[in-house]
Amino acid sequence: MKKPIVAIHPDILNVSDFYNVLKSKLAGFDIVVWNENVNLNSALVKIAIIWLETSKFDEKFENLDLLLVCGSGVDNIISKLTKKNYSFQIHRLVDPYLIDRVSNYVVLNVLNVHFNFKNYISNNTTAKWNKERVRPDKPVVGIMGVGKIGMASMNKLINLNFKVFGWARNKIKHEGLCDIYIGDSEFDRFLSECSILICCLPLTKKTENIINHDLLYKLNEGSYVINIGRGEHVVDDDLLGAIKDKQISGALLDVFREEPLPEIHPFWRDDRIVVTPHVAGNLNANEQASYATKIITNYYSKNIELGTRIDTNFQY
């Protein structure tokens, strides 16, 4: 009897490492890196693992049980499914390494804002000895999006004695240590609490362009914005305008509508904006493949889910 197939798309980072981990841990499956040159029995493909590839894979593999997506974003996958009715589950490979790395990135940049560290870096270029004023009271941090990464970021900041609030579009179960505002009715109150606003949201039709003029002017004057969600969350001109008006003191942006960010983009020319090249959540193939193994094993053994399944009604 032929084994079911796990098909890995070759655009996954360090795909050979990913393949080797699955090969060593999933004895009951044939592991295949698929492309147009591979003679693949598509009827036997039960699991597809992809990253950026979206070209009609749900038509290629009609007997899928699981679709695993590397990284935390699935917006580009769901929007391009060719079939509206499908029975397979979609899971994000948000592994512990990824959660730890991204939440550390959040904490690092909150601390940089609190200690005005960007000014020290600037002072180095001019040999300027200047001690920045640090307020004794820490800024209040608001996190939009309280999934695995948002919650990990919250708890780390709370352990550093920051006051943290969360906001979620829909009611959630959580084990965090902070207050979480829910839905549109509590959104303005959430914004009024924030001195640093962090976007960890998934990209959906309802969250696209959420960081706009209206939101920015509901924050406390002089607030700081950090976006690790998606570039499409930010209305670029609205953010630039709010910074020019000094409503927003600055921003740290790791994701953009167009990547790489074009050299002519005004974000590069405003020294109150820090640009990082989508590095908050660099993927580790070994960790992701090990986590994929857990999801696959749990699915077929009917064990408890790991909280990675996507609700396609909400797109996250």
Stretches with pLDDT under 50, minimum 5 residues: none
Gross morphology is: elongated
Strand coverage percent: 15-25%
Q: What structural class is derived from the secondary structure elements?
A: alpha/beta
CATH topology-level fold name of the largest domain = Rossmann fold
Query: How many domain units?
Result: 2
**Main sheet, how many strands, which sense, barrel?**
7 strands, parallel
By CATH, the architecture of the largest domain is named: 3-Layer(aba) Sandwich
Helix content: 25-40%
CATH class of the largest domain equals Alpha Beta
List keywords for this structure.
2 domains, 10 helices, five-stranded parallel beta sheet, Rossmann fold, seven-stranded parallel beta sheet, 316 residues, single chain, alpha/beta
